[in-house]
Structure formats: C-alpha cells, structure tokens
Amino acid sequence: MADPLVAMTGITKRFGGSQVVTNADLVLRPGRLRALLGPNGAGKSTLIKILSGVYRADGGAVNTWRRDGAPGGRIGFVHQNLALVDDLTVRENVYLDGRKPRRIAGVIDKKAEYNESVRRLAAVNAKIDPETRLGDLSLGQKTLVAVARLFNTDVDVMVLDETSAALTRRESDWLYAEARQFAEAGGAVLAVTHRLAEVVKHCDDATVMSDGRVIFEGPMPSLTELHLLMARGLAVEPPPQEDFEDREVIVRLSAAGTDTISPGDLDIHSGEVVGLVGPLSSNLYQIGHLVAGRTTATTGRVDVAGTAAFVPEHCQIQGLLPELSVRENMTVSQLKHLTKWGRISRRAEDREVGEQIATLNIQPPDPEKAVNLLSGGNQQKVVMARAALTKPRCYVLCEPTRGVDVKTRHAIYGFIRKVSAEGAAVLIITIDVDDAFAVAHKIGLVRDGGVVEDMHTRGSLSVATILERVDS
User: Fold this and answer.
1) Residue 304, φ and ψ in degrees, nearest 5
2) Is the pTM of this model over 0.90?
3) Are the C-beta atoms of 51 and 192 separated by less than 8 Å?
C-alpha cells in the first residue's frame, strides 16, 4: 500500500460546549479517490476546515507529504462556498490565487491573463467570456470557474467540497474523469458530496461520518450498503402522521414557473411541513425563492395566504448583516412593528429578542454581541429567529442545517416542529435527505428544471428509499 499524502489522526474539535468532531481519522493515498460522506452536522466541513488550516484541531495530528515523499504536501481546494468574488470578472477570479502569466514593467498583462483564462476555461469545458462579471453566472458556471482555477495549480491533493452538487450529471462525470487522471499521475482526491450514486461509480474508498464520528472507513461499499450506512446516522423521532387536506391552504403553486424552473403545482396546508429534496443541478432552491416572492412567476400563479419568511440557502452570506449585533440582525425586518411615535420600543424589542434567544438556545445569549463573532450554527439560529419575528404564515427554509453541529441541528428541528404546531406552513428545500426525513410530513423529489415529482407521505418512505430515488 502506497504511503499517504495526507494523514489526519485522532482529530478532535469543540466549539464552546459542543463536541463537533471526536477522534476522527482520514487518510488520503496517491492514486485513490476517497469520498467523505455524512448528513449535515456530521462533522465533514469541520474536518475539511482543519485540513485547510481555517480551524486548529483541539486534539490529534495532521501530516501531509508531497508526491516525492517530502513533508509538506500541497493541497488545493474547491470549497463549498467556492471562495470567489461576484463583483470581479471571471478572469480576475481565475487569478485570485496570485499566479500571474507575466507582468510588463510591474503592470499586470491583462491580455495575457485573458488568453490564459480562455485556455483554462476551455480545459474544464466552460464556454465563458473571461471578462464576464462572475455574479452574472449561474452557480454551475461559477463552480467551473473555481475548478479551472484549481486544475491549473501545482498540488499533490485535491479536495472537492460539494463541487459536483451544482453540476449536471454529464459535467459531474467529466469532473471525476479529470480527478481520476490527476490521481493516476500520483495525486490523491477527496470528494465531499451528498450524491451517493456518483461516488459509488467514481471513487475507490469511503469515509462516512455521523455526529462527529467516523462510522465507516474502507473500500467503497455498494450503493445499497451506502444507503443503509447513511440511514444509520439518523436518530430523529419522525413527525406524527396527520391528514392536512381539510386544513387551510397557505401556499398554492398553480402551474407556476420561471425562466429556470418548469411550471408546477404545489399545495402546503396550515401546520404542514413539506420537504423538497434533489441535486443542486435541479434548481430546487429557485422553488423556494418563488414561494417567498424573491422571484416572480413567468407562468401560472403563486398564492400565499399572509407573510412568507425566507431563510436562504447560503445563510451566513445571504442572510446576515455581519457588522450588526444579534439584536439588530433579528429585528431588522420588524422595525415597523416595534416602532411607536417614530421611536423603537426597546422594551418590546428586548422581550421579543429574548424569547427567540431562549427558544433557539442561541449561544452566547447576549443580544448585543456582534453576530459575526458567533459560531456558524448560532448565526443560522439568528436568521431563523428573524424569520420567526415576522410572524409569518409560511416559512421557506433552504438548507436549514447547513454547516451546523448536531446539537444545533436538533434545535432547528425543534423550532420547525414548534412553528408548524402553531399553524404555520413550512417548506424545507435541501440536498440533505436527513433534513427532510426528520421533520417533513410529505417529501417530494425535485428533478432537472425544478420539476417536483414523487410526492409521498413521510410514513411511506425510508431514508434509503429517498436516497435511491434521488440518486436514480
């Protein structure tokens, strides 16, 4: 067996009172593709951030080597958030790593950068003008820009963190084929993903995590075995089965579609939690944007009885005002209702903020603390609290537990059960099957073009069944 390029042994990490990774091992060897799998809150992202140097482990060791056996291996990442800048051009993003083709008298040669960017983008099958503003691209196109940047760096190990999630199956197959060539040249590849069928097809080994621990490590299991492993990681009491058909319809989509999603129908009743599950390439989040009024239907109708609160898919990026306090982030959408005679009632504000801090167990429980000093999980809770303070009839929650630890995940599940029991309709949109399975009364699968099909009651499904249908 070849000597490793990465050896993470006995890794432990805590955030405050929460243990998020416990005694985890991860070994990457040359010539091999390894998949790192598990539900939201399993500890995958924390392990990757320790490997990249964003976090320091509380215990254990991280060692890396180059292909020639020398210590100090070079690791390249395509991070889940892509680490790109929307306001820069594609060309400028390609060169964010600081590697320039050449300079003339100390001045950047933009023509050389342009030509080299064209070559890099062509190498990843991306037909994109390098002078295009990155923010004008689709998520899939942005992903290819990040891949183009990585594939043109000199590294020993590639880490692809949910990189294929925004790609079509054809693009994903191409990505893994390129990763295989890299591995055959002596490199190692780690793929973090929720798409199980593709890793069974392309990867050699698997590491499966649940609640911060490694529960499986070895050669890639069959898809059926992998489904059972993933289902084993779920320890959540399912919601009770109820008949909602006689209750008020809070959300109704009638042949509603946009430029990015096909026309479709969907009803959500008072007190009902509906989960939509699918790959990123299906444009599933756009359904949530449509229901929440963030985009306008180009066909059909969207009817929502009352206010719809929205928690976006990238909560820390899209939902927070990082320089403001916890209190200000919570009440920014409620100032009109908290104002009397032109002045904010601090007494009313303190009461409502305090209730949400207690309900969601936000830590530390300090409303004046800058929100950017909180952990990712507590930041997620702040955005959920802001949604609750608008007193909505409907909640649209995209990836409600992305990047949170298991304790926070269960707190968010409790919040969802609470607001639905109070009569709110809840729409959960996620690529993580466990989220839908834990709290939804009905689950629908989203196919390419935002087409919702195979809507089933939670009682008629298992995690393995959903995984099989999502991966098919």
Assistant:
1) -125, 125
2) no
3) no
